[in-house]
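Structure ticket #2291
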Amino acid sequence: MIFGRVKSLDAILATAEKKGLHRSLGAFQLTMLGIGAVIGTGIFVLTATAAQKAGPGMMLAFIVAGVVCALAALCYSELSSMVPVAGSAYTYSYAVLGELIAWTVGWALILEYALGASAVAVGWSGHIVGFMDSVGIHLPHALTVGPKIEWGFIKGGEVGGIVNLPAVIITGLVTWLLVIGTKESATVNAVLVAIKVAALTLFVIITVPMIAGHTPNFTPFTPRGWGNPFGSTGTGVLGAAASIFFAYVGFDAVSTAAEETKNPQRNVPIGLIASLGICTVFYLLVASGVIGSFGAQPLMDPATGKYFVEGSPELYASAACNAAHAPLVCSKEALAYVLREVSSPLAGWLVGLAATIALPSVVLLMMFGQTRIFFVMARDGLLPAKLASVHPRYRTPYVVTIVTGIAVAICAAFLPVGTLADYSNSGTLFAFAAVSLGVMILRVKDKDRVRPFRTPFLFVVAPLAIIGCVVLFMSLNIESQMVFLVWGVIGLVFYFLYGYRHSNVARGITDVVDDPAMMPEIAKDL
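Resolution: structure written out below.
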């Protein structure tokens, strides 16, 4: 029986111990890793998307998305402290829900991380193009956006676009850095996190004091209502929450690094909860500063009387977006644009520069998580073993890193940031719901196992997390839902053609340690 193929926690821990990755990360590095993965395109860029969907009500969207993430983070903390190995939700599902569900979760995580990395790369492209424009360097429009695409439910791009070259370039650089090594990547990330936090702090200091003088900017607070989670329109507060959920995605990258963490039972929960808490405070301050200082009302098409679709070619081509002092929803570098409008060109330039320098750290962390999911799935036999090969010198999973880099670059080259973020969220929400279900099952099924961190009020927290994930998934637009379903079908085809017959559990193998190339702890230089 497929659902009976459960890999025991003891076998998972044994495999990780004998074939594990090098443990080099501490609590501080994990917290910085989490903040680095979370703070990025979601707040620097997607603020404009949230404004078009919900107006000032995007503040409620940040709260809704943050609450769902907090609930899921508590569930993640218990499982990651019990099973401190690479693989995140995939590994946890394998131990609790069985191989088929584990494969489905792992496949969803691939969608999350790969498209998430692509979305951030496109967001970075918008900032670097804006920054270069501010200093008099103008790249051809055709090389900064993808072409206009309408392939069924895959839509995006702009008229006149050919390829988003800056996004492709940054993806290539990040891929190279990840091949070099985890510790080096984490060190670079810590510096970039400091730059991002400084930029957001500057933004808050300048804009929050302006709120008192601009209270009308908060009215109407929810111009497009709360939205209908069963309408598949992706608008209103819930639709904005489903999109802005991307602003919180990344904290689970902390748990994917568990196998490379010193004292993971203590440090992983600290990294998860601390990074999420710090980011939530920043987001609410930034959102209130955006609304209070400049305004965040959605833009309506005067010809039809309907609101523009966020990030659409029609929105960017509208008269309002091409006029001086265009609304927030027209900007591809939201925070830098706001500061240029309400403060000074220098302030906007500094925040834009910070985002340009720091956003690559989010691409790095998204791809980091993606490669570790691939690595563990291949190590379990569900994907070809070659993908789990570790570089003999750098001791990193270089094959999956290169494969991931190519896929991320292709998506970033042709699709817009909002589309990529929504597609990524669909996979994330499924994985979070699976983790929340798994922690409840394991609490009953293996109640005597040591739990260094116990989720408080688990049987209240976990069901609420699942409900929240379902509501946000249903609040995504129909295109994003369809991408997830089609991706899931493709994954099932791959599973039954390869993984079903080759998985270690199916072949009765609980631990395979005969390939030195897959054992970074003992791999030697060739």
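Closing remark: DSSP finds 19 helices and four strands in the chain.
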